[in-house]
Amino acid sequence: MGGNSGGGGGSGAVSYPAYMQNAHGDWLDDSGSDTLTESVTSVMEAAIGNSPWTGQAAYDPDTDITAMIAAGVDLQTLVTLLSSGTTLDTLISNILDDSRIDNAVAEFAADLDARLTSEVIPRFERGMQDINAVMSSAFVIGRALIEENHDRQVAKYSADLHMKAFSDDAIRVIQLKLEYQKMASSVIAEIYRMKIVAKKEQTDTDMNIDDKDAKWDLEVFQYGANLLASIGGGTVNPSKPGPSQVQSAIGGGLSGAAAGAMAGSVIPGLGTAAGAIIGGVLGAASAFL
User: Fold this and answer.
1) 3-class DSSP state for residue 7?
2) What string of H, E and C letters represents the secondary structure of 8-43?
3) Which of 52, 69, 138, 220 is deepest in the core (most CB within 10 A)?
């Protein structure tokens, strides 16, 4: 096989066309005019013992976590204030107190009596007088019906107040407290979930830094080994670190919590905790993409 066409001769030597060899020489060392001022040995000597990972540490999230927990505690304090001083049981008992309702019924009855005496009965009696029926049975029956209607209105008003106090006021207070407590508990649970993930991320990063620091000198030797092995094509690429899956989970949890809080105002039953779970799953999945 001819030398100008490239390939190997009988002795195993490999040759290439002259224009390729000239271009290669120009690019490699400017046809011999450029020389190295450092050897791989000197570079390795300078690198050994000077790991950039020495003294490095992962970000410590304790200050941020403490602030988040304090915010959660403040929220819980506000929720607790809804039933402090006058306890929730006392508040509900006051709402359902018969004396409070009886006072309102008595005032309603007194007002009804006053209007009955000053307006209804005089008009009735005047009408009966006009037809000369004051002494008739119709007069007595009419007065009785008026009194009966008066008593029925008072009884209905009393029943309505008792029902409203139970079904509206008392239940509404209980539901309000439970809803706020649910919100506070969800927020606090999410904060502690983030704390667990963040501290795990810190531990994993510290271990990764320690691992890289311990292997630094060994990997420096790998470059020298690659130089020696390059003559036979047996080089090895140093391992490359992958993305942090936990960081993606934290970010997904935050995004999910925000989305859940917004969705909770639209979709009943879906709130911060649900959004955080969804976001965390999506965030963790995104780390593999």
Assistant:
1) strand
2) ECCCCCEECCHHHHHHHHHHHHCCCCCCCCCCHHHH
3) 220
DSSP 243: -
DSSP states of 153-195 as a string? HHHHHHHHHHHHIIIIIIHHHHHHHHHHHHHHHHHHHHHHHHH
d(CA 7, CA 15): 6
- Tokens 């080089």 map to which residue? 235
Best CA proximity match to 177, nearest among 34, 79, 30: 79
Classify 239 as helix, strand or coil.
coil
Distance CA 49, CA 216 (A): 8
For residues 99 and 87, give the distance between their C-alpha atoms in angstroms, rounded to a whole number.
Answer: 19
Could you list the pLDDT tens digit for every one of the 289 residues in the chain? 444 445 555 556 677 899 988 888 888 788 888 887 888 888 889 999 999 999 999 999 999 999 999 999 988 888 887 766 556 666 666 666 666 777 777 777 777 777 777 776 677 667 766 676 666 777 667 777 777 777 777 777 777 776 676 656 667 777 777 888 888 899 999 999 999 999 999 999 999 999 999 989 888 888 888 888 877 766 766 665 554 554 545 655 555 555 555 445 444 444 555 555 545 444 444 444 4
How big is the CA angle at 70 (ends 66 and 75), to the nearest 5 degrees? 150
**3-state class (DSSP) for residue 212:** helix
Q: Which two tokens stand for residue 104?
A: 């309102």
Whether residue 250 contacts residue 198, with contact meaning beta carbons closer than 8 Å, is answered with yes
CA atoms of 174 and 199, how far apart (whole Å): 37
